[in-house]
Write a structure and sequence with these properties.
Elements: H1 33-42, E1 44-45, E2 54-56, E3 64-70, E4 73-78, E5 84-90, E6 95-96, E7 109-112, E8 117-122, H2 123-132, H3 134-160, H4 163-180, E9 187-189, H5 194-201, H6 205-217, E10 221-224, E11 227-230, H7 233-241
Antiparallel strand pairs: 1-8, 2-7, 3-6, 3-8, 4-5, 4-7, 9-11, 10-11
Helix pairs in contact: 2-3, 4-7, 5-6
Amino acid sequence: MGNTGKVIDFSSIKIACQNCNFRQLCLPFGINEDDLARLDTIIRRRRPVPRGTHVYRAGDSLTAVYAIRSGWVKSYAVSEDGNEQVTGFHLPGELVGLDAIATDTHPCSAKALDTTSICEIPFQRLEELAAEVPGLQKQLLRIMSKELSADDELLMLLGKRSAEERLAALLLSISSRLNARGYSAREFRLPMSRNDIGNYLGLAVETVSRLFSRFQQQGLLSVQNRSVIIEDIESLRQISSSCGGHDAPSARA
């Protein structure tokens, strides 16, 4: 398979924040090198999290937030009747765990969808540093604002769009987020199951599988197992925007 964007080479990702490939997408955005070095001293690099392993579970106390360096993470909640609700798919350069700030307890669980490398940022020390570094404080507020916007977008996505529009919006969201990280906007692998996609979009797994087949028959996608090539991104955009021109969900999709 050809690749029109950067090949993901996880061995090239450096250790320090100063050299991190995702520094402009994560916490260090907009702060100077001295303050960035201070931030780097509080960050713990955890061993890779194996596929299917939890980063944290619902009900755990907030001790840290987590920056994804490589891999994908799924966040989900469990209802009172025991049913799982997927609340987001998170890519490299994104933070998870911020939704615990209000109550000091994680309301959702986060699980690695494939082997995932993360940075653990102790929250108490992050708070202390943010109080001293205005740029860091501003960045935290910006990220939390995006979380709120993503909640609104998800409600709109599930409430007003057809099944086709929902899947198109998700694929475009993943495409644009990968492109922002320097990877191909057209060719990528989806590590989540069709069941997880359906759960997130509020669709039956059979509907998701049928839509992938339909998009492929229409020449919009090429799909092989979990690998996807977007063949006609403009047509996907037309499908996604037919509900009223809203953008695809970003932070949570």
